[in-house]
Amino acid sequence: MVATPIGNLGDITLRALHVLNAVDGIACEDTRHSAALLQQFGIHKKCLALHEHNEIEGAQTVIQHLANQERWAYISDAGTPGVSDPGARLVNEVQKAGFRVIPIPGPSAVSCAISASGSVMLNADGRFQFLGFWPNKTKERDVLLHDICSSKKTSIFFESPHHIRETMILLAAALEPERQVFIGRELTKKFEELVSIQASEIASWLKTAESLKGEFIILVAGRQASAEEAPGHASLLLWANALSPYLGSKEIAAVLSQALGLTKKEAYQIALDAKDKSADK
Predict the structure, then answer these.
(1) Are 207 and 242 in the same domain?
(2) Which residues fall within 8 angstroms of residue 260, CB to CB, at 6 or more apart?
């Protein structure tokens, strides 16, 4: 499973080039799209179309080649296969047939955007949920919007240029005005744009944006607990004290973080405070 550039061809890895040159054949999400990439690097291999509409059938063809002692690679149109792209069914079928699947890591729009998002990821303590492509159906969209608004994790999703305006307007109406939003457009490409704003500034951004063309990735900061709903320090110490006979500080912190939505740093400090109080008795 070979990751390929999401835009800038310079992001191809040496390992990806080595593998694509070494295999006997390459299954591609779109053979016409992949032809340009392969030609750019002088790679000439037999190619097989394997996309979301024929993934199971295509997987069986790949398995037949593997059974004949051939080595095959799979590439999607861009980025890492299986991440909002075909590939998961192929992996499942190949593994069921008893063959090894090897990931060849590389470009990913998700990790690319996270690395440049700054404040959007700070309060989430590195935690995020990847939601794939924004749904077109109203019911699915409403469920997703509620999830984004209520989650304490950073939410990440893809959107097309055809619906980005409508989607951003929905976010502006649903989110608290101070919620941080990061917008990545055409990542790694010539007209790459990175914008970090608050939800209250979305309308202004839509009016002044030079272009809404290209592929978008959106990051929405997680919801911050209000003073009314946030557990008090004394209450958190009670939790930690109850767990201390059975767990160490790191394990207590993990439980508090998962159960109460605390950051790892906050949870670990509570665990240490509980240990200190216990030692003083």
Answers:
(1) no
(2) 231, 236, 239, 267
Residue 18 structure tokens: 């080595």
Identity at 160, one-letter amino acid code: S
Q: What mean pLDDT is predicted for residues 183-206?
A: 95
- pLDDT digits 0-9 by tens, 221-266: 998 765 444 556 677 778 788 777 778 888 888 887 777 777 788 8
DSSP string, 84-105: SSS-HHHHHHHHHTT-----B-
Token output for 234: 């004394």
- Tell me the residue range of the domain where 128 lies: 109-220
* Torsions phi, psi for 225 (to 5 deg): -65, 135
Q: Do 61 and 115 share a structural domain?
A: no
99: left (phi over 0), alpha (psi -120 to 50) or beta: beta
Backbone φ and ψ for 257, nearest 5 degrees, come out as -65, -45
175 and 209 both lie in a single domain: yes
Residue 214: predicted pLDDT: 94
In contact, 50 and 29? CB cutoff 8 Å = yes
Is residue 57 situated within a structural domain? yes
% pLDDT > 90, the chain: 71
Token pair 């919007």 is at which residue?
Answer: 145
For residues 13 and 35, state if they share a domain.
yes
Query: Considering the domain boundaries, does residue 3 fall inside one?
Result: no
Q: How many domains does the chain have?
A: 3
- CA–CA separation, 148 vs 131, rounded Å? 9
143 and 86 part of one domain:
no
Instruction: Report the C-alpha gap between 223 and 179 in whole angstroms.
Output: 7
Q: Rounded to whole angstroms, how far apart are CA atoms 256 and 277?
A: 17
Considering the domain architecture, whether residues 174 and 246 belong to the same structural domain is answered as no
Residue 162's Cβ-count burial label (10 Å; 0-12, 13-18, 19+) is exposed
- Global pTM exceeds 0.85: no
